[in-house]
Amino acid sequence: MVMKKVILSNMGKQTEYADSCDWKAPKIEHKREKAKAQKSTIYKHKGNFKWSGVKTEKYKHNSRGWSAIVRNVLIGDHGETCKFHLRYFEIQPNGYSSLERHNHEHVVVCIRGKGKVLMGEKFYTIKYLDTIYIAPNTVHQLSNPYDEPFGFFCIVNAKRDKPKEVRSKNKKK
Question: What sequence ranges are listed for the domain Cupin type-2 (predicted)?
Fold first, then answer.
């Protein structure tokens, strides 16, 4: 078999390649290749609703409009490039989240105890594995009027707007 040389020109730069079935096109960088390479990870559950490599944080930086609630970001704070974040929130007895609305939707799955959710003007009781879809711009608040912790996963868009606090006369129930 006779091998010929092939010369390709790309923006004034010439590159020589052997003409064979083993020939591979020059590598062209794509934007996705420039993104940080991701490493698959397992965040092991350590018991008591804590995960290895995941820190427990304040619910929000300001301390207005909420009480006795913490969050753990399982997916979304460790350099992942997925389009969603997975967080675990836990509300202690008599605690509550802020009363808010925002343009993004989210999903809540109860995994510990039970709690209440206000959606619009109506309260609902949620318990183990009950799943809630909160549509964009729905006024909502989660609360725990019970004697045990209320924990839930919350799935939101990675790119999302900031919640707008809704002023109201003590909506928690």
Answer: 88-156
